[in-house]
Amino acid sequence: MRTATGANRAAYLFLSPFLLVFLVFTVYPLVLSAVLAMQQTHGPGFARFVGLDNFVSLAGDPLFHKAVLNTVIYTLGSLFIQLPLALGLAMLLNQPGLKGRGFYRLIFFSPQLMGLVFVAMLSALIFEKRSGLLNQALHGALGAWLPPDHAFGWMNALKDVTWLDFPWLQTFVMPMLILISLWMFVGYNMTYFLAALQNIDRSLVEAKCRRRRRAGPSVLARDDPVDPPGGVVRGAAEPDRVAAALRTAVHPARLHGRPAEPRADHRDVPLPERVRDGRHRGTPAPSGGCWP
Amino acid sequence: MSTSRTRIGALWTEALSPGAWIIALLAIVSGVIVVAMPVRRAPGLELWMFSPEHANMYKPATEAWQKQTGEPVNISVFGIPALARRVMGGFFAGIETADLVECERQMVGPMFSGPLDSVGFVDLTDRIKAEGLLERINPPSFTPWTSCRADASACRTTSTRCCSRTGRTSSRAAGIDMSTVETWADFERVLRPLMADKNGDGQPDRYLLGFWETHMDNLEVLLLGETGRLFDADGRCVMAQERNAEIVAEVLSWCLGEWRFCADINEWTNAGHAQTIDAYALAFLMPDWMCGIWMEQMPQLSGKVKLMPMPAFEPGGRRTSVRGGSMMGIPKTARDVDAAWAFSRDLYLSPDLARRLFETNGIITPVREHWSNPVFDEPRPFFSGQATGRLYIEQAPNVPPRPASPYYRTALLRLQDAAVSVAEQARSKGLSSPKDLLPLARKALEEAQASVERQMDRNVFLAEDGR
Questions:
Q1: Would you call B461 and A40 a contact, using CB atoms and an 8 Å cutoff?
Q2: Do A162 and B202 touch (CB under 8 A)?
């Protein structure tokens, strides 16, 4: 019995550093946040308990609803435009034989190197009324011409506005924000996709190429497996392999700024064995590829 | 022995990496230094402010104070948000901030929205009354700082009177006599011929007034210029009153439809300055402090502009309004409240500062006894030889009062939201006359008032005060 108690004590002693840190830095702030959410405060010195009033007030505040809606629109706009575009750019840059790949990569990535303040100033210079570059260009190209009434429903509210005074940053501020974030981050996301694409096992790409050649032009519409040597790669398994390639490429790329290094024991193993035992993941990336 | 040393060394490196040990060591050393070293404040008064222009003007006064008392005045200038955060942080934590803080009007709302005990400034009401400052200073300059909850916490504002700047060259060339303009209707009628379309793009080449529905400050100027107001004397939000809706409908009609005569010109950007210099708009609402900004930032306009009293909405109406303002507050944690009070009183009542305020920044002192100073009668070359000081002083007694409220800025933001909402709806429906806009303005202002009231009503600290 004594021994058991002693063992318990020892266990708690060894657990105590974690427990202490966990209680102080996780549990206590969580509990305090819950308490704070039910208080109205004016600095730490003055607090009054108001129950659920903060939540009720927030739920009934039209501005909060508008803020949530704006956030959702911005997020969806960013996700559904930014990520596909980044993937598309990465696939274009991953084409075999593309000259100046590094230059294009720099061009697409370079907005990321600018500070947000400069981006804001640049955007103002482009989209501002009257003196904005875009409005100046539209005015120069289109002059006094405006779309006829009802040609574009959203433009009817701007009938009395010339191209020079077009309110990009007033009436169309949300599309402009999405566009600006697109410009800033599409190159950034592209580098992740590109790293992942370049890290896909050459054997998979080759297998895909062979499959395409064998299956002919209708391959995209088919779901029947056309196995490469080794009999493992199937069309239905492709997403899993891409995801695996992404995982293996993205984490090292984040940490070290480069794709994962190939494991030495993979280099000389023949393709069928590698594919069969699943060791193909993490093998070196081809410089280009027969990407469908 | 060497084996045990190796074991200990291995334990150290297993517990944390060398980098982590260095970080931990630095944390311990710096923590000990911070705890061990007492915070030494420089001797003398500490003055925090937001305006570098004001700081330059105060230098002679600080030098005079040092000669007189042997104590320096150390001035630190911060951006408005940084200053607000520092001051609020100090108030919340109850730690020393400065001996004097010069605040801009819109940053002080949160400082007065908590319990009365939490207001970090010294209540100066008794001192102000004892020294007769209420009689010496123009009353509208005091009202934004004289809370119905906590009385006066400050001793000055840069009271501003708004006049209109008009393109002198343009109006003179067109044979237009601006002295016949009394109301906004006159203003439009007299100047409308200048809105020609010479480049043939179907739109006027220039507009009459630099104003837009998004210009929150100028919206307030026009509202207060008439009998509009956001709060009553008891601090209740009255945004939705009928006169406000009428004014909002009227001024928004200036920005809408084919008869609009306003242009959206930013007052603070290079692009806006370029449009101003090009006379894309002929007139602007000009508080006195804006004169200094124009003189410094747009010297090309020297001799090309003149000031006139702001047109009224009705014949015989008020020809001026108010915009902006600053105050000097003494935090409760000031080391020597009496010295801080004496310095700020000497500073703000100084005839020398009054002269420099006007000469450098165009600001008219709110101290009425200085208004007879001949400097205000001197012709100003930038304004085509006008004695602009006298022009502003003539309007000073008519400056509308602004009641103090912790929610004044919230109300201004909601007013802007309302104006933008009305303008958007009007554009989509093709409306532009004040009569058509009035129902929209009523509804938008009611929603705006409800939003402000919701914020005020849920403030338990105001409720505890019986407000």
A1: yes
A2: yes
Kindly give, in sequence order, each residue whose CB lies less than 8 Å from that of residue A152, ignoring residues fewer than 6 positions away: none
Residue ranges in chain B modelled with pLDDT below 70:
1-5, 8, 144-175, 201, 465-467
pLDDT tens sequence across A168-212:
888 888 999 999 999 999 999 999 999 999 888 888 888 888 888
Task: Give me B227's structure tokens.
Answer: 């009998």
pLDDT exceeds cutoff 70 at A23: yes
Report CA-CA distances (Å) from B303 to B70, B167, B291, B299: 45, 10, 13, 9
d(C-alpha B465, C-alpha B461), whole Å:
7
| The predicted structure's pLDDT at residue A30 | 96
User: Which of A43, A48, A139 lies at the smallest CB-CB distance from B460?
Assistant: A48
Give tens-digit pLDDT for A70-109: 999 999 988 899 999 999 999 999 888 888 888 988 899 9
Report d(CA B380, CA B122) in Å as an integer. 40
DSSP secondary structure letter of residue B386: B
Q: How many CB pairs under 8 A join A and B?
A: 78
pLDDT at A118 over 50: yes
CA distance to partner chain A, nearest, from residue B322 (Å): 27
Q: Is A37 helix (H, G, I), strand (E, B) or coil?
A: helix
Gap between the Cα atoms of A104 and A34, Å rounded: 49
Question: What would the 3-class secondary structure string for B62-128 be?
Answer: HHHHHHHHCCCEEEEECCHHHHHHHHHHHHHHCCCCCCEEEEEHHHCHHHHCCCHHHCCECCCHHHH
Alpha-carbon gap, residue B176 to B184, rounded angstroms: 15
Is B37 exposed, middle or buried (CB count within 10 Å of its CB: 0-12, 13-18, 19+)? exposed
Tokens at B29, concatenated: 């050393």
pLDDT at B276: 92
Q: How far is CA B260 from CA B15, B207, B281, in A?
A: 74, 8, 12
Distance CA A12, CA A6 (A): 10
Among A50, A129, A144, select the one facing B264 at the smallest CB separation: A129
pLDDT class of A260 with cuts at 50, 70, 90: very low
pLDDT tens digits along A52-62 = 999 999 999 98
3-state secondary structure of A41: strand
Q: What is the pLDDT of residue B113?
A: 86
